Amino acid sequence: MDVKEAIAKRRSIRSFQEQQIPEHVLEDIFQLASWAPTHRMKEPWKLKVFQGKGRNIYVKALMRSYERLGFFHQNQTEKAEKMKQGIETYLFSIPHHVLVYMEKEEDPLKMDEDFASVSAFIQNVQLIAWSKGIGVLWTSSPCYYENGFYEEIGLHMKGHKIVGLLQMGFPKSIPEPKPRTAIQEKVEWVEEG
Ligand SMILES: Cc1cc2nc3c(=O)[nH]c(=O)nc-3n(C[C@H](O)[C@H](O)[C@H](O)COP(=O)(O)O)c2cc1C
C-alpha cells in the first residue's frame, strides 16, 4: 500500500473482530510510528496497552470516571444501569485499548510541541496499522481531564497529559468515507506584501 492509498483509504473503525493482534505486530507498528517528527528529539509519546484481562482496569476506571462526571445522572437508575452495561459490553468487544500520553511541560511552547509530536505519532500508528489490515479509532473523552481517572490507571494529572485513546483490532466492518472539503476553500496564497 502506498502513502496516498493509506492516507485516503484509512477509515476510523468502530467495530472489531474478537481476535487479538499479536504483540510483536503492535510493537512493530509503534516502533515505525516513532519516526514521527519530534522537536529536541524528545520522543514524548508513552503508551499503556490494555488488553485481555487488563482491559478491566481501563474500562472500570472509565466507567467510574463517567459516573463521577454525572454522565448517567439524568437517567433513572434502571435506564442508567442498562446504558452502563451497553457501554461496558461495547468496550470489552474491543481487543486493545492503547492509551497514548505524555509528560506535561510547564512551558506552553514545549507543551504544544510535544502534543503535536504525539499527535503525529498517533496518525503514523493509524496509517501503518491500516496498511497491515488493522483498524484504529482515535478517541477522546472528558474522563481524560478528570483527576480520578488518571489515578485509577496509575498516572497523575499534574504531570501527565492523555493525548488520545486508540481502540485497535481487526475491523469487522469498514464505514463509508466521509468526503473532505476542497482544499481551495482552506488555502490563502499570500504573494504580495
Ligand atoms: C482528536 C480526535 C478525537 C476523536 N475522538 C473520537 C471519539 O471520541 N469517538 C469517535 O467515534 N471518533 C473520534 N474521532 C474520529 C473522528 O470522528 C473521525 O476521524 C472522523 O469521523 C472522520 O472519519 P475517518 O477518520 O474515517 O475519515 C476522533 C478523531 C480525532 C482526531
From TrEMBL:
Keywords per UniProt: Flavoprotein, FMN, NAD, NADP, Oxidoreductase
GO molecular function: oxidoreductase activity
Named cofactor requirement(s): FMN
InterPro entries found in the cross-reference section: NAD(P)H_nitroreductase, Nitroreductase, Nitroreductase-like, YdjA-like
Pfam families tied to this protein: Nitroreductase
Domain Nitroreductase: 7-169
Superkingdom per UniProt: Bacteria
Protein family: Belongs to the nitroreductase family.
Alphabetical list of PANTHER family matching this protein: NAD(P)H NITROREDUCTASE YDJA-RELATED
Protein name as annotated: Nitroreductase
Native source species: Melghiribacillus thermohalophilus
Taxonomy of the source species: Bacteria, Bacillati, Bacillota, Bacilli, Bacillales
